[in-house]
Queue: 3 jobs
Job 1
Amino acid sequence: MASHAAFPSAPSRMQRLRQLSQRHLRQLRRTLAHLAPRLWLLCAVALLVVSKADLRFVNWLSATASDLYVPAAGLLYQPVDWLRRLGEEAAELLVLREENARLRARIGELERLRDEALRLEVENRVLRRMLAMPSPPATVRQTTARVIGDSGGPFRHARLLDAGSERGVAVGMAVVDEHGMVGRVVAVGRRSARILLLTDLNSRIPVLVAPSGDPAILEGDNTAHPKLAFLPLDPAMAVGDRVMTSGHDGLLPPGLPVGEIEAIEEGRVTVRPYADWQRLDWVTVLQYAPVVPPEQEEPGAAAGPATAAAGQPAAALR
Amino acid sequence: MMRPLAPAAAAAEHSPKRHLPFVTALFAVVVDVLPLPSAAPTAVAPLFTVCVLFYWTLFEPALMSPLRTFLVGLLFDLFSGLPPGHSATAFLGPRLLLAPSQPSLRAQPFAVIWVCFAFAAALVELLRWTLSVAWWGTLFSPTPVLDELLLTIAVYPAISYLLSRVRARLPRPRYGDRV
């Protein structure tokens, strides 16, 4: 017994198994650590492929992340905003005298236009009443939002707003600044919304050219000057003509100023948007009630507007 | 068999400061997504996130693991509205290529590191451009991408200096040091 205790006892079967499993576990960890970059790269590629399917989960993830970004951006935005304002004020001071003279001339011009607009409004109202023509649907509400995020690269022209579904913003709504249309809402979170600018590659806006009335589609191409596509066969447009939304998609309000024709070269018509990209820190989301196609209307709800719409001319004829 | 950690090393491993590299990368993502003072749609800005990821991957690879790089890329995509996985792929690809040369690169003078960064940033931009072309099916103009690349390369020395100050505050002995 004594001689037996002098030597360390041989490891039991259980201990040997434990040592073996620990060794395997360490090997597995080393292998995983070695493969980690490849595995995560594979995950990233898989995620990219999956997100192409436009899954609801991916959209939810994106909206939730945007909501989380809002408070962080709100804090960091202050110094950026302060720097921008400082630069703007310094630049304005340098050109104050010329700006003042230009604005005085502009006021005179606008006063003339206002008188003309009032006269046309009265005339329009009288003519509509005579023809029993329904009034164009008005914008229901407007929400002012701050631009807090950029797309962060040359591949996507989008902005992030600090207003979401909690403030009534929904996908498809038009976004304008004080000069004209900026873009439209493409994704909405609770406290944030992403807008696609007119200049983005994926932006398509149905427009009309004034005064000719030619319809077209304003296509973004990731440059500062989107182009007009799907023009009529004999377009009668010229450089300087105004471009405005037509409302033909039933989603955007008609008559929103978009820009003016900048150049017509070899069948390519480019537009200079009115939006002031340099001061795009506050924008307005137009909560426009879109026109619901008859096939998407509920059976009960369809009867009302259809009857009313049909009834109006009939009443006028009587 | 892996030796146990010394008490100082164990304390360093549990220090909250070892998350500083990840926090600086998240900060860079938020700054990258902030609107520029000149918010013109075609305006370009440097990609601070690429600078930060390169620096930490080179000097503290244990603190900027592939998982963390993946998360930074994913957050960049989600915040900026790019398809999820777009930037994560672009950030992880060059890491995989440059990994074998990391230990020798650390000891090189700054100019050599800067040149290597330019190479890595060019790879990131090339991957982003290729993925964008494949995703949207359109040939994007390379000019804004090149502008972005040049700006990113230009700001790297400043970012590197700032991060070296952060690195000096990391707990010693370094994470990963063993007795």
Job 2
Amino acid sequence: MVRMLSVERLVKRRGSREILTDVTFRAAPGRVTGLLGPNGAGKSSTLRILLGLDRADAGTALVDGQPYRRLRQPLRTVGSMLDGSGAHRSRTARNHLTWMARSNGIPTRRVAEVLDQVGLGAVGGTRVGRFSYGMCQRLGLAAALLGEPRALVLDEPVNGLDPEGIRWIRVLLRGHADAGGTVLLSSHLISEVDQIADDLVVIAHGRVVAAGPIREVTAGYPTLEDAFFALTQPVAGGR
Amino acid sequence: MTFPNTVAAEIRKTATLPATMVALTVAVLGPVAITLINAVGVRAALRSGRPELTAYTSPVEAVFSAVPIGTVGAVVLGVVAVSGEYTANRANIGGGRQITTTLTATPSRLGVLAGKAIAVGLLVAVAALVAIPASLALAGGIIGGDAPPTPDGVLSRSVGAGIYWMLTALTALAVTVFTRNGIAPIIVLVVNSSLVSVSVLLSHLTPLARFLPDLAGMSMFAGDLLAFDEALAPLTGGVVMATWTAGLLALAGAVFRWRDA
Amino acid sequence: MIRAYGRAAATELAKLSGLPAVLATVLGTIGAAMVITGALAVSPVGADEPVAVVLQAVPYLQAGTISLGVLAVGTEYTDGQIHTTLRCVPDRLTVLAGKTLAYLAWATGTAVAALATGLLTTRVTLATRDVPVVTDGPPENIVGAAVYLVLIGLLGVALATLTRAVVPALVVTLSLILVVSPALDAITPHARYLPGRAGGLLYLPDPAPVLTPTTGLLVLLGWVVVTGGGAVAAFRRRDA
């Protein structure tokens, strides 16, 4: 089964300001696609539309040709993680994952499995409000993995993780893509994306300024960092 | 002097919270709006020659029966001034609470609390100074010549209502210091803001209930509206409520000092 | 469709039971029923009709079901949990249907438990005071009170959906029903069409009957449908 994520000519306005302009890219199975851009470039807005949270003013964002809102059991198709845990602070981590599992008919044994997988096995009964930032990130990852989805959509997944956590997620995402899964992740950390991604979508001021395999995007620049600044700065940028 | 700075910071912080603007709007527009409806109702009853249709016919009572909605505004103001400090930013649940910023900027716990109390007290006083005279003018204007003669003590009852709001807001502030969360104080204090409060219920049980803060305080402005026979004299009631408030604030100060942020 | 709603309701039930604030509200409502009916039953002016005593407590108990309704939706907007919810169940109508069903289950349980506790407390208190129970008022008023408590909390569900936060929804719903409505009632006969007053006919007789309990129920349902309709429309249209 192919799990292609495709974003086509996406436009989003907030008031009179256009925050996304004709954003188009694809994330293909078997590859890790990195969405790279400075703060406020439109990365999260794009992912929120892809996940059916916000509506686009024009264009489409599809999972296997279907809008997310049309999916019956979305967690089994696309696992996702946005900023933070997405859990009410007075719940326990286990309760949070249990209601999520119930909503998509996922067997509840998966709750313990993903808690162990992200290293929160010992604190499943702790209220989320007592978690550190890094633990909240891990809980968000556990939620993404809960339905054993073929596609993963992760917004800034390495934020707040310790070095061991960062390496762990790198290995996890690599393994997921190598097994034929699709990974789309956003980041403002150039070095992280450089190490994880196969394909790159560089976004700045709500527009895609470069997209393609990482080698093509960085061709002509000594490093990805140089490419990034050249591409994202309005004066110096553009090719 | 650092304390004036603390007060200034707290006023700025409290006054710029969106919830504060909503609370002030409720405290000002709420009584005015209810007064408007009350006064129109009273005028209609008087003109049709059937004053027995309404519970009162005086413009002054039309205003003071609207005071409880202003109390709701005062409660919200006192609660959010504290609970806003403990609300986590969505992005960083682990530690992104404003209280850490506040207490690293002003380590003196009592200074922070006193600053907050002064800020809340001032904001409520401003709301009362606008809302009550405006309501009195409005009710007088609408009911006008049809009204029975103005009873005595309108000024002292107006001041009493303003003081009642201030003390209620400070009580709400102190209680929220204990709970660190706005939900429980809002439920309890809003329910108790109504003229049919739990305290009125308790007054059937024991005459001691009149010494409860809200019943004692209501005697400052409610007059005959208080559905309760053995009310304290207005001045005594004010002193009793102020004592309660001071005690709760002192306790809140002790808890706030002793507890980890 | 039915299956999707059932699954959504099961999800929301699991969610509510994971919130300490919900459990505290349920216990608080039952505790309030006990204290208030106990106080009324020992008061010197007290009634000797257990049903009448319990009905007097209903205006206070409604704060409990209103809080339940507000918490069921309002807590979604703390810590961005609504994003998780909508990623699990992208269909907006299914989410709201699940929430409403879960609220109805919790509120019905709470209302029945609180009213039963109130009846029991009153009977025990009257018995210990050796007050003979004269009559037991019509029990259908107790059923009416339970229906009222459940329905009035739906306004909390709707207003929390509209305001997207716990505290503003609590303030608006509680002050409209407990503060504004009685203030208007003293002065204008139109106040009888306010939700608290109209619904109140389900358990309290009207001295000047303009509305019957049935029409009162219809008026209250009208309020629920109007605010609920607005809430559904807003929830479907808005970005999360």
Job 3
Amino acid sequence: MPTVLILGAGSDMAVAIARKYASAGYSIQLAARNPAQLHALERDLKIRHQVTATSHAFDALHFDSHPSFYQSLPVQPDVVISVFGYLGDQEKGQSDWQEASRILHTNYTGAVSILNVAAEAMAARNSGTIIGISSVAGDRGRMSNYLYGSAKAGFTAYLSGLRNRLFHAGVHVMTVQPGFVDTQMTQHLTLPPLLTAKPAEVANDIFKAAGKKKNVLYTKWFWRYIMLIITSVPEFMFKKLKL
Amino acid sequence: MRKQLSNWGNYPALDCEEAAFSVEEQLQQYVDTHEHIIARGNGRCYGDASLSEHSISTLRYDKVLAFDEAEGVFECQSGITLDQVLDITVPKGWFLPVTPGTKFITIGGAVASDVHGKNHHAEGSFSNHIISMRVLTGKGLLTCSPSQETDLFWATCGGMGLTGVISTVKFRLKKIETAYIKQKQIKAKNLDEIIRLFDEHKHYTYSMAWIDCLQKGDSFGRSILIVGEHAKPYELNEKQRAAPLKLPMKGKLTVPFNLPGFVLNNFTVKTFNALYYAKNYKRVIENVVPYEPFFYPLDAIHHWNRGYGKDGFVQYQFVLPLAQKDGLTAILRRIGEKGWGSFLAVLKVFGHQDDLISFPMEGYTLALDFPVRKGLFAFLDELDALVLEYGGRLYLSKDARMQQEVFWNSYPNARKFESIVQAYNPGGKFRSVQSDRLHFDYGSNS
């Protein structure tokens, strides 16, 4: 059975993705900063789905450790999904470089660092799939979260370039653009229920779209059109809005 | 996130701060930094028992930690729902030891309400099958069982979350050979007959009855008794026998929004009851059915609670001691005269149980819905007085409105329970709108 590596496996979205892939029989590699917190999920996947599951220590901000982390995995994964992210505190980040750099490095630099490693390994054997969870926040900067948004914009551009390059090596790259998702990351926000997806819905969409080798997935689907509208507002008007 | 929360009865609806956790450390941190907390599972209790200023959702704390397929022992985090447990265990030949009429409750909720099912007279309530559990109390994370920290154990079973947040639960499952139930339905013309039928069929593992509360005269208390056993492989038809433990297909009906209140008026209720009774045109029907329609007939209609309109409803469930058949008659008569009852009235005979604060006791239990309307609570207070008079009590998981005296006068161990709550939850860090309404004294935190 193929193996999927889930980076940032502690989040609600990651749990849903792990369960989705496990239900299809995939072996699961869970990676997060504190692997002790993954053991319950690891047991859960084994019992519910009779699959192999392992937990690994991974810190997105420890760039230097990324190559050895990837090399030391018990099996080279067939699918790598980068789920980790850090929404952070926009207002704090405006004046506090610690916060700003954590937002930028988690969402952009850290993701690039680990996916560079995965990309080289997959390109060398001409197979594999890389899935990056970016965000619709990267489609246009807004005053309420442009630090997060700009990092995700960079990540989206990285994924599109990586897709272009790895296509020629037989490796597929999918960009996932979730809109609002009901997770702990957004627990403090009041989200409109009709526009908000459950983590399990996002996981289903990702699994299905990856099977069809989609390039860019908006989830829920209507976010493609919402973002189309938001990105087509002329800048001279957009800057006057308080979004 | 701040939001309007209500449980299954859609009454009351309150503005609460809702948080969630997926690992124990997050729960611990939340509990350390907040007051007035109550755990909330899937929101299937009917009233205000899981509402508080800070409702902490257990739904993301839903991992299976161990499943011993040889011994039938299951251990999980408290936020997993029964339907998920069944999906995992039934294909391996194990069933829940006790299940209420919906599979959309969490294991934590099953413990906190100490739920009962159609097999109460034979196999007791959920607490009867717990091996051990871990509870995050006001004094830290503690392990308890029928032989360890027994005060905490019995005050947590049926304790409505007042000892703390239930973290993990280890319990025994029940061996099955098929995913089917061999059931028998028997029509009873009146209350005397149904009570006699219960007695005649008490050797069946599962039994309950639908009762029509609106009939008068000779048909007063006409009912359908439903009894059943887990089917043996030889009782299945050829197609079923090919995969005896295969899960039945899932239903998908839903009530998409709150129906206007008049949809369930007296006329429709009467018509429904008449049709329901008439569909069993033979006096006795026997057949083999998948476990889902047998245990969870209403789960097939998602959000059936919206059928009662936006004002919501309360479910009234009481139990009377076995000797008080007259009391049952008196209360049923009162409900019938008023004519405000629902198309759903469930009658069951409980077996013996005498735990600290659990609802069941040997006797008759009746549950029915009342859409919220003007004058309803005064009427229910009248019923409460009757229940008290005949030595009965009300189910806290269904309650949204009982007066404090009713609770303190009907649960014989209520004050003892309160003193244990004070020991494990000093100062009332864990409390609900319900426990405040009943005027619990949480003691002081010093």
